[in-house]
Design goal:
The structure holds two protein chains of two kinds.
Chain A (H helix, E strand, L loop, with lengths): L8 H8 L5 H12 L2 H17 L9 H10 L22 H10 L10 H14 L8 E2 L3 H8 L19 E9 L2 E10 L2 E9 L5 E8 L2 E8 L2 E7 L3 H13 L2
Helix pairs in contact in A: 1-3
Chain B lengths: L15 H6 L3 H12 L2 H18 L8 H21 L26 H4 L5 H9 L3 H12 L4 H8 L3 H24 L1
Helix pairs in contact in B: 2-3, 2-4, 3-4, 4-8, 7-9, 8-9
The chains are: A alpha+beta, B mainly alpha.
The structure holds zinc ion.
The site of zinc ion has 6 residues of chain A, from helix 3.
């Protein structure tokens, strides 16, 4: 036994990793209360966890999915796409969709109406289908922002939050309640956050949170835009995302 | 994780293997990428691993599909690393032999310094990549895949006690490196 371990080091780690049952945790708690070594080691473990939140989760690309699906005989066809769009190779058939969207007189339901929350979550889930997530793949806001030009009747704000631990993955166009919206996709560890952006009708509003089907949603309005972040990230994490977004110029 | 149902457009109605394996494609790629350090190598490893998994599928007895797939991915990646590095071999960096889990980094009084690292994603990735293979895979499976000790033990073919001490070493090395970087 050295100065660095009181004999409970790995138990303490297991507790922080959520691996102890109630009885084991209770026994450890008794020891921890008076142990300065445990206190120090806990601080180290929590610091490590905090630092690791920013580690990159590497995702399989659509090409790999197609290659694997072909090799294991799962149909072998390219995935059906919601639109006839091919990510980062231009949007085939996009013009028709844009014209249609522009022709529609767009009325968005105010946020808070269950229909919109449901539509956003449905869209988020649908987007997780292979190849549906991103039309433009770039971690650079100066690439993503111009990509929306001419594809939408408004200019969505695009921010890079990598330094806050929410790296930008890219963006896509989508249709929610009959209106075209910009969707910015961010990651946090293995979680994805989708930020739906469209012109707001009302004035600036503070973030409001709701939840549906295990997904959390934070909605706010700022600078004439309605913004809704949808993710399976825990509520505190999504709140932090909204806060970082609002604070980043 | 991505729900199984969304892969229905890729699968025939009765491709059971695809239904079990494809939802774990991201996890497979993430592990392979962290083990091999290259996107191209990781893609090769995942393809080969998935084909192997299909071959072994008749012997799959249920349980965590993700752990089963990742175990095959890990073995395939080790094979690829061994081929790449020749005689030196991929695993066995001897990290478990140095039984020094008690030794504590000197940042223990000031762990907040490590937090500076979370603002520097590229450096965080570089530090993880610099960990010995056994520590890196254990850390990635715990922190990025959020797997249980038991699942990690299965995937890495190590006793749970070894998983626990590897996790501690990995976290200690990272926090120490982070603090040293912050001090500079
Ligand atoms: Zn103690």
């Amino acid at each position: 036994m050295s100065a660095g371990d009181c004999g409970k080091l790995l138990l303490l780690q297991a507790e922080i990793d959520g691996e102890l049952d109630a009885a084991e945790a209770a026994a450890l708690a008794e020891h921890r209360a008076g142990c300065p070594v445990c206190k120090r080691n806990e601080a180290l473990l929590l610091a490590a966890r905090q630092a690791l939140r920013g580690a990159t989760y590497h995702r399989a690309g659509p090409e790999l999915l197609r290659a694997v699906a072909t090799r294991i005989g799962a149909g072998g066809a390219a995935p059906q796409r919601r639109r006839t769009a091919v990510p980062w190779q231009g949007l085939i058939g996009f013009g028709a969709g844009a014209a249609l969207a522009a022709a529609i007189v767009l009325t968005l339901l105010p946020f808070g109406r269950p229909q919109l929350v449901a539509a956003l979550v449905d869209d988020h889930v649908r987007a997780l289908q292979p190849g549906h997530l991103l039309d433009v793949v770039s971690t650079n806001q100066h690439t993503v922002k111009p990509w929306f030009d001419g594809r939408l009747d408004f200019a969505p704000p695009v921010k890079d939050l990598a330094s806050s631990g929410f790296p930008l993955l890219g963006g896509r166009l989508d249709y929610v309640h009959g209106r075209s919206v910009a969707v910015l996709v961010y990651s946090r560890g293995k979680h994805l956050i989708e930020l739906f952006v469209w012109p707001a009708k009302g004035t600036a509003g503070q973030p409001a949170r709701s939840a549906r089907d295990g997904y959390n949603i934070v909605h706010w309005t700022a600078d004439g835009m309605s913004l809704s972040a949808v993710s399976d990230l825990e509520p505190a994490g999504l709140d932090q995302f909204a806060r970082e977004w609002r604070q980043t110029p | 994780m991505r729900p199984v149902a969304i892969y229905s457009d890729l699968m025939g109605p009765d491709n059971v293997f695809a239904a079990i394996a494809l939802p774990h494609l991201d996890a497979a790629f993430n592990l392979a990428r962290w083990l091999t350090g290259s996107r191209a190598d990781a893609e090769d490893v995942v393809q080969e691993a998935m084909v192997r998994a299909l071959t072994y599928f008749p012997t799959y007895r249920g349980g965590s599909g993700r752990a089963w797939i990742l175990q095959i991915v890990r073995n395939t990646a080790y094979g690829a690393l061994k081929a790449r590095r020749g005689e030196r071999g991929a695993g066995h960096t001897g990290v478990d032999a140095a039984a020094d889990i008690e030794s504590i980094p000197d940042l223990a009084d000031d762990p907040e310094k490590a937090l500076i690292l979370s603002d520097d994603l590229e450096r965080m990735d570089a530090l993880i990549a610099s960990l010995p293979l056994e520590l890196r895979e254990t850390l990635v499976l715990r922190e990025l895949e959020e797997l249980s000790y038991r699942e990690i033990a299965q995937i890495t073919a190590a006793p749970i006690g070894t998983v626990m001490s590897r996790l501690w070493r990995a976290r200690r090395m990272l926090t120490q490196a982070a603090a040293e970087g912050a001090r500079r």
